[in-house]
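Saturday, quiet lab. Running sequence design on the structure tokens for the scaffold JK sent over.
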């Protein structure tokens, strides 16, 4: 039985958006560092601390993860919407995103891949395994270290009145809690 007030979005995953967006930083071959925004991310275990991120198999980020087996997962704020959109519109194979977008990187505590200095939170992670599913590779990361800026959170997590966390809708659409922000 079908209800008359139903509709079907163009893609199934639109029903699961908006989603928190992160910037994945990876060490790549020949010493290059890459940055990629991603929103298909979820925690999967507390013990051991583990997350999963779905990344296109053909992406430069997948190539870099194969090379280094580690990444930093950096949490941006509302101030980074334009940067997030731009980072997602070019490939690290063709563009040195760190230089092009003037990303300031700092040393991580436990892994060799750097963190993004402007992130309001971060996770340092090692690839535990991956599973190929259709056009994506689901990476399972074990969290080695993590942290949050004191001005936006505490041991209990985010202060959502101060953190201005960003969620990705579709395309140029970004949200924060209660507001839609459209990238230019």
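Result came back. Writing it out in full:
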């Amino acid at each position: 039985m079908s209800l008359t007030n139903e509709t079907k979005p163009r893609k199934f995953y639109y029903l699961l958006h908006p989603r928190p967006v992160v910037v994945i930083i990876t060490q790549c071959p020949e010493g290059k560092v890459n940055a990629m925004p991603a929103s298909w991310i979820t925690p999967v275990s507390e013990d051991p601390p583990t997350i999963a991120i779905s990344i296109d198999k053909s992406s430069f980020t997948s190539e870099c993860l194969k090379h280094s087996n580690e990444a930093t997962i950096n949490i941006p704020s509302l101030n980074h919407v334009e940067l997030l959109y731009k980072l997602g519109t070019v490939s690290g194979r063709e563009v040195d995103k760190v230089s092009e977008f003037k990303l300031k990187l700092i040393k991580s505590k436990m892994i060799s891949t750097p963190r993004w200095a402007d992130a309001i939170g971060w996770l340092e992670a090692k690839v535990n395994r991956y599973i190929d599913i259709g056009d994506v590779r689901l990476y399972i990361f074990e969290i080695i270290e993590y942290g949050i800026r004191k001005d936006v959170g505490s041991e209990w997590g985010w202060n959502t009145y101060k953190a201005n966390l960003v969620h990705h809708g579709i395309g140029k659409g970004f949200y924060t809690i209660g507001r839609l922000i459209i990238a230019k």
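Notes for JK: DSSP finds four helices and 15 strands in the chain. Helices lie at 60-68, 81-87, 97-100, 160-163. Ask whether to fix the surface positions before the next round.
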